[in-house]
Structure formats: C-alpha cells, structure tokens
Amino acid sequence: MPIISKWNIQHDGELFPAGTIVHVLSKDEEQELVDNGQAEFINMDLEQTLHEDDSLSVEAFTKLSAAEQKAELEKYGMTPGANGSERIEQYTVWLEQGL
Q1: Which of 2, 3, 28, 74 is the most exposed place for a label (fewest CB within 10 A)?
Q2: HSE-up (13 A, CA, CB side) for residue 27
Q3: In what order do the strands lie in the sheet with 21-22?
Q4: Distance CA 84, CA 39 (A)
Q5: Furthest C-alpha separation in the chain
Q6: CA atoms of 66 and 75, how far apart (whole Å)
Q7: What's the sign of the alpha-carbon dihedral 76, 78, 81, 85?
C-alpha cells in the first residue's frame, strides 16, 4: 500500500520530499517508516483519487494536513499560501492548468 512521507525520504538514490506519495518501497520498509512516524499509509479512497501523474484530486488535497498541502505545492514549484483556502485555490488552479 502506498504511503505519504512526512519527512524527506531517500530510497535507491531518489529523494521523495515530505508530502510525496511513495510507491517503490517494500511492505516492510513502508511499515518501518510508518512505525517511526516518518510516513503514513494512504487509505484506499485517497489512493483512488490520484491522477495518472500522481497528483491528488482537489478533494484529496483538502484532506491533507497544512504541512502536507505545503509540501505538495512546493513539490510543483509553488510558494504555498498562508492559509488553507489559499493553498486549495493554488492547487485547484495548478491542477486545471496542468491537465
């Protein structure tokens, strides 16, 4: 089951910034990161909201914590807004332009 990193994770030379969905780890590696508080499992509903390029739907984005929203925006080169509604608007505009 994929996980969302809470911290930067490096695996096989690839860096996964905080808030990134990680698919490449073994179940044991995923469980270790979750047990150590460095990641959390994605529930199946959230996983199904992923677009082909691993971007989240707007609904899934709104369910992320503030830190996860900021990391997701930074991952795509944006400077996160100061509050949740600004970040959701930024992500919505980016998603509409990017697809």
Answers
A1: 28
A2: 1
A3: 21-22, 3-5, 39-41
A4: 21
A5: 38
A6: 14
A7: negative
Q: Which two tokens stand for residue 82?
A: 């100061």
At 45 the pLDDT is 52
What is the H or E stretch that residue 20 is in?
none
Contact 17, 8 (CB under 8 A): yes
Q: Residue length, the chain?
A: 99
Tokens of residue 97, six digits: 């332009």
pLDDT tens for the chain, 99 residues long, are 678 888 888 888 888 887 777 878 888 999 999 999 888 887 645 444 554 456 788 888 888 889 889 988 888 889 999 999 999 999 988 888 764
Q: How far apart are CA 60 and CA 62, in angstroms?
A: 5
